[in-house]
Amino acid sequence: QVQLVESGGGLAQAGGSLTLSCAASVNFFNRIGWYRQAPGKQRELVAVRETGGITNYADFVKGRFTISRDYAKNMVTLQMNDLKPEDTAVYYCYGRKWGDDHWGQGTQVTVSS
Fold this sequence. Notes:
The protein has no helices and 11 strands. The chain is mainly β. Strands 2, 4, 5, 6, 9, 10 and 11 form a 7-stranded mixed β-sheet that branches.
């Protein structure tokens, strides 16, 4: 059974940093990364890492967030710097494995101004 468990969310001030981690129960995801959903908005892509090392970032996080993947530990990490109040959202770990999408339970990130 595929499970994705996030950790590391919390409260930060504008300009601060947080690190989110996602532990996967299995490896060999074709795609793994992070989405977020703010109140009243649709879930949106933040950053994903494809097999082969290709990384895609949403424009609104380029230069501020960095995604990394540890194959040995089955983990993916999102380093978030220069946080802004508009980054406030529930952040979800996402993985695609052989055509099936899997989601974590989400972790709240709140950025105060």
